[in-house]
Give the backbone structure.
Amino acid sequence: MAEPQLVLYEEEHGHIQVVIDKLALEASAKAVFLVDKNGQLVAETGELRGIDTTSLASLTAGNIAATGGLAKIIGEEEFPTHFHQGDRDNLHITLIARRIILVIVFENDKSSLGLVRLRVKKASSELAHIFEEMQKKAEAAAASGADSPFAEITDDDIDNLFSD
């Protein structure tokens, strides 16, 4: 059976934003991103000038998919944590709740891998809890036969929204 589609409501997005804002501050990160495995940006915070967030999201999802393939070749299910070190900036990537990717960009002279890992551990558990609750809501809605939250929107509503 396919996993039910998660719907991110404003309340959940607010909770997520609080967690990643706190993570960015406590880890002295340059930026923090949440991306789904399909490459869609879910949330972001921090210094975003000069960062193509659309490309970052899709390339991060591709990286997770590629390393997932490598993991399977050697008998692992997945590699849930990735670290990429650059001359100035580093990336710490963590898979959360098997479907969300947490990406932290941090500078060598403002933070450390140890600090980032410590802060990611706490934030990951908070984010996993939020996404588990969203999953439960989605499963309950699917089991009850509830339609999509967008089911009541008609073509006329869309036309009215975009008309001059």
